[in-house]
């Protein structure tokens, strides 16, 4: 298992060690001990899974403190462009977005810390996405940012006019008007 740093502090890509043989492959998608050895000490309490069709865009979402969530995101089937936006007001990369292709094939995981908004677009025919969270879902603490906020300039890898987006996500505010408390 190894960690790839990104240009945003604390936002890392985790690459598991994959053991292949004639049957297929095996890897540890999460190990508390191995994550601890890499300096990541997180108590995950909820696992989520979603399935989406090509062209779906979910996000950008966060939960405000004291219900903020760290998310460890991976793809079980298909390919997504996974995006995290730094919302930490005292961060030198506040308002910057990082994107990475996560797929069932590359088995990469994005560790999205508390203080970030998260979203993804589906670039394969379908995608099953699973993510661990270190805080429970709390509807009242939910916040979001509009995926096409021009100040974020995110390349979602698709024509946004045709994106499949929930009603809730279509009316999210721009980052400058969002209610984030980080
Ligand atoms: C996120 C969540 C939703 N739900 C319910 C609420 C709603 O009825 C239904 C669908 O919720 P949403 O439309 O918010 O699902 P979705 O748009 O997939 O929301 C998710 O998007 C990605 C990008 C994230 O980062 C997640 O944290 C989460 O916000 O599921 C839960 O019961 N528990 C949860 O943890």
TrEMBL record:
<feature type="site" description="Participates in a stacking interaction with the thymidine ring of dTDP-4-oxo-6-deoxyglucose">
    <location>
        <position position="137"/>
    </location>
</feature>
<dbReference type="GO" id="GO:0019305">
    <property type="term" value="P:dTDP-rhamnose biosynthetic process"/>
</dbReference>
<feature type="active site" description="Proton donor">
    <location>
        <position position="131"/>
    </location>
</feature>
<protein>
    <recommendedName>
        <fullName>dTDP-4-dehydrorhamnose 3,5-epimerase</fullName>
        <ecNumber>5.1.3.13</ecNumber>
    </recommendedName>
</protein>
<comment type="similarity">
    <text>Belongs to the dTDP-4-dehydrorhamnose 3,5-epimerase family.</text>
</comment>
<dbReference type="InterPro" id="IPR014710">
    <property type="entry name" value="RmlC-like_jellyroll"/>
</dbReference>
<keyword id="KW-0413">Isomerase</keyword>
<comment type="subunit">
    <text>Homodimer.</text>
</comment>
<feature type="active site" description="Proton acceptor">
    <location>
        <position position="61"/>
    </location>
</feature>
<comment type="pathway">
    <text>Carbohydrate biosynthesis; dTDP-L-rhamnose biosynthesis.</text>
</comment>
<dbReference type="InterPro" id="IPR000888">
    <property type="entry name" value="RmlC-like"/>
</dbReference>
<dbReference type="GO" id="GO:0005829">
    <property type="term" value="C:cytosol"/>
</dbReference>
<dbReference type="Pfam" id="PF00908">
    <property type="entry name" value="dTDP_sugar_isom"/>
</dbReference>
<dbReference type="GO" id="GO:0000271">
    <property type="term" value="P:polysaccharide biosynthetic process"/>
</dbReference>
<dbReference type="GO" id="GO:0008830">
    <property type="term" value="F:dTDP-4-dehydrorhamnose 3,5-epimerase activity"/>
</dbReference>
<dbReference type="InterPro" id="IPR011051">
    <property type="entry name" value="RmlC_Cupin_sf"/>
</dbReference>
<comment type="function">
    <text>Catalyzes the epimerization of the C3' and C5'positions of dTDP-6-deoxy-D-xylo-4-hexulose, forming dTDP-6-deoxy-L-lyxo-4-hexulose.</text>
</comment>
